[in-house]
Amino acid sequence: MNQQIKYFNDISTFERSPLQSHFKVFIDLSHNRIGLDAQKLSEALSNCNNLSYLKLDLQDNKITDQGVSALATCFEDYKNLQIFKLDLQSNKIGIQGAIYLGTGLEKCTNLIDLALNLFRNGIEKQGALGLCSSLANCINLKILSLNFGQNKIGSQGASGLCLNLAECNKLSALNISLGENDIGPFGTSNLIMALSKAPKLLILKLHLYSNKIGDKGAQLIRASIKSLAKISNLLLRLSDNQISHQEIKKITQVVLKMKRIVKYEIIYI
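and the corresponding structure tokens:
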């Protein structure tokens, strides 16, 4: 019988609950400015070692690398966790915080479905590479959603993190947002080529809005997208990249010729 998801919206109530009896939990502390109380939350979460589902909404809380380190420590005990949704948007997480997060997540050995939102932080190239290198060690990961928008990742960071994700051998569905990261035309092409190396990837949703791709990048996309031979479901979000309608049309024509494509969407407005 499926257990119901237990909902909490303050740390104190969660602390007083029967922590070891929880199997599915949603904790919403968004916009609460918890800051260093991340340590307090971590101490409570460390007692929830029977969780199979966890959703944590911690966006806009002034959480620093130190706070992320505290949270990541408790992940080491989550041997039964299969679905994890973690929202850390608009905090103060830097390079080291992203690495701490990856170190914790790779200990979740039974994780199947992960959604991680780090939009508008400061993880940069090194943080993104370190985090995604750790995710490659989540050997059972099949469904992955990542939002790395506005993190100063750059061209090499974007292609490098995608190379790391391609090492997730069971990954079948990837939804990744890299908007506003100054990736440029060559970075865009290289990251697509990197993702083509993922052995079981069938569903790819790639959000690359506001990355200075231009028509030059669109031409490179046409060439690199052919490498996604196994993809059956494709979404490309290319808005605000100064790509002409003519080049979008040419990309669409290439996609239509891909033999396994069943569903596709190209967003450019």
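(Above: one complete record from the training split.) The longest strand covers residues 24-28.
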